[in-house]
């Protein structure tokens, strides 16, 4: 399947990654789609309109107030023409303008005037990307329904290393393909509830016990389940991730809060995935006032938290297909199969967290999926890709 017949506006803003846009447009044209390029004034400092015209085979648009361009195709007509507007690279400046609805040039005006899907490929210095203002603006755009593709991690043009690289042209073409072509939706009509992230167990008003879970795997599963057509409930512990769009998110802190929300949603769900790293214990008593320093040692009494997934799997009426996760540092198969049986799960996804760069707080993971009678090993890959494979495997087991 290619993108034949699809109409894409590639909007280029002024960042060094603009030099990759010639390649991006070439790869999109390979997919036989129609591409029109819009450039901001600052983009022209990084790549010339002539280059973009040559690769797209179309005149480049850059001005809102150009009578001849308006006569050929007015900006509202242009905005309606597109099936997708992809802004690549998207600088912190254009992201900020989009988040506040500023329309002071052709590209930002098209974004407001289009009924089409809008995607951005952020690209900037890692410090600029991490700035709270940029993060705030990205959250706003995500909740407005703008797709945010990337950025990637690695060495930057300025010499810094970190998050802020524009995705590579081939990765952006893949994103365009999944955004524009109808994916197979084996989970249409199914409801999936997913727990994600850590829990936070209060000791007193200012202190808590938690763990290093980032929530990336659970959020990836939620996105994947949505892509495959499911209605998704995500029960999330405290994480630093942008909430996915078109997914019902319940924010919780403690294991008890997570359990209450899980049991409320599980009996309405076809599938329950327990991906959260739930604290095994909580304080027996949460002090009402800040605990004061006393002596050289102190003892806190902990009591066991409920096993959320085991309670879901024990539901008698309307029990969902129940999938757990097991992070192990040794005897992965033995422990995973033990949990599958003891918690009465239908499937368990196990990973070896002793391997450097995998599992907790990392972008990558490697999983082995276990059922009672079967097992499948999935090689190391990005958590989002892995999530899609896991959700497809679950879908294949449902009636
Ligand atoms: O027993 P362990 O914590 O290793 O089991 C992991 C699996 O059980 C995960 O699916 C996790 O989300 C779930 N779990 C839970 N409630 C707990 C502990 C773990 O749902 N209290």
From TrEMBL:
- Residue positions annotated to bind CTP are 274-276, 280, 290, 306-309, 325, 339, 343
Write out the catalytic residues in the record. 158 (proton donor)
Phosphopantothenate--cysteine ligase: annotated span = 192-399
**Keywords from the UniProt entry:** Decarboxylase, Flavoprotein, FMN, Ligase, Lyase, Magnesium, Metal-binding, Multifunctional enzyme
Region: Phosphopantothenoylcysteine decarboxylase; residue ranges are 1-191
Known NCBIfam families for this protein?
coaBC_dfp
Function, as annotated: Catalyzes two sequential steps in the biosynthesis of coenzyme A. In the first step cysteine is conjugated to 4'-phosphopantothenate to form 4-phosphopantothenoylcysteine. In the second step the latter compound is decarboxylated to form 4'-phosphopantotheine.
What is the protein's name according to its record?
Coenzyme A biosynthesis bifunctional protein CoaBC
- Organism, per UniProt? Pseudoalteromonas luteoviolacea
